[in-house]
């Protein structure tokens, strides 16, 4: 969790004017297709999404790396099917392995996926794939289908402070930004990724290699509040062979003498990149969440899962029947923060009390809310226990939420977490450096396992580190090759 930027919730309503369909020429296929969102609307939509994405996930700042990739995105955009579109590229400060694009030319990669890549050709393939989703207008096609089905589409509820989805915790997140594209969409994006990266001289065979790495990783559907690449980009079949075949075709037609890979150059660019969770943004140790920068701590209910994002921390039990949300108020006054939050969330107060939490002024509020399940459409009555805590000139907020029948069984657990919010003063918990990718040169030829052992990698981390380099522990590597390790 970071101190969030001023965050104004944007609710975009893309209305179907008189529900009159319009046809547009798809930039990639050249064919007419039903499209209810114009290009200007698409660009405006991307401009609205971008600050929300940034404030929700945060940016990873490395100007040298960013400048290099932006130049490549600009070069690729000029040979794409939409060369007139202005493309934007940003790296999100998330450990999750993912890449995605939103309408209007915005492409995002997480530092997690950059750390997993091993050469610039893989990077160009992924960028080309995401650019393909934009040039073929896949997201806009999905929106059009929803408009037709629902006679209207409401989008942009990103990290909303409204708890209308509490009855369905699994649906939290940036649903629209991470649309699951169809198999045809994915196949076309793969084709375009090969085409675009090949046209600027990169070896797209490496793109196929990276798809194999993703499969080996067996990524879960969601980590850290952001879906993973495989969950948002369903595998359209045998991608490895398909992409290799497409690459052979393009390389034969283009006839370049050599194809760019840039292993060593890429690894040098990501040397020192933060790997995994960044403890400076908050971390879990021994059942307690610590935030070194804001200097607070609180316990996590036993067995609960915690998801930390720049805007809020979420905790939930395995059965998903409850949720604790911890966030920071925009207001600087305790009473104002409580009043405006209760009003904004449409909560009906049942009881409130002025108290202290470990010597800090606080307000405890018990309330209820009627909420609609976004999947079933059913309305359920929720109860909410909220604590507003004034600490270090900031107002922190806890919300514990459960359906009315389940609430009493969670009440004490909610309260126990909230009233144990405390100052963080232990220097051993404050001065915790993040793990970083370090690029090391192989001192002598040997097996991956032997080399990694000589570089200080433990047996426990051997397979993970080998996969980080797209290698197997038994593979042989030669002296002088560069490898990634995590320190």
Describe the structure.
The protein has 3 domains: 12-270, no CATH class; 279-430, 3-Layer(aba) Sandwich (Protein Transport Mog1p, Chain A), CATH 3.40.1000; 437-486. Helix content is 35%, strand content 24%. It has 15 helices and 24 strands. The protein has helices at residues 39-57, 63-78, 111-116, 120-135, 138-150, 183-199, 205-217, 229-232, 239-254, 263-270, 334-344, 404-418, 427-430, 448-454, 462-468; strands at residues 12-14, 23-25, 32-34, 88-92, 99-102, 106-110, 153-155, 222-223, 226-227, 283-285, 288-291, 296-299, 305-308, 312-316, 322-328, 348-357, 360-372, 379-391, 394-403, 422-423, 437-441, 446-447, 476-477, 482-486. The strands form 8 sheets. The chain has a 7-stranded antiparallel sheet with strand order 13-14-15-19-18-17-16, with helices on both faces. Helix 2 (63-78) crosses helix 4, helix 4 packs across helix 7 (205-217) and helix 6 runs parallel beside helix 9. The model is unreliable at 4-21, 147-178 and 220-225 (pLDDT under 50).
Give a brief rundown of this model.
This protein has helices at residues 39-57, 63-78, 111-116, 120-135, 138-150, 183-199, 205-217, 229-232, 239-254, 263-270, 334-344, 404-418, 427-430, 448-454, 462-468; strands at residues 12-14, 23-25, 32-34, 88-92, 99-102, 106-110, 153-155, 222-223, 226-227, 283-285, 288-291, 296-299, 305-308, 312-316, 322-328, 348-357, 360-372, 379-391, 394-403, 422-423, 437-441, 446-447, 476-477, 482-486. It is of the alpha+beta class. It has a seven-stranded antiparallel sheet, with helices on both faces.
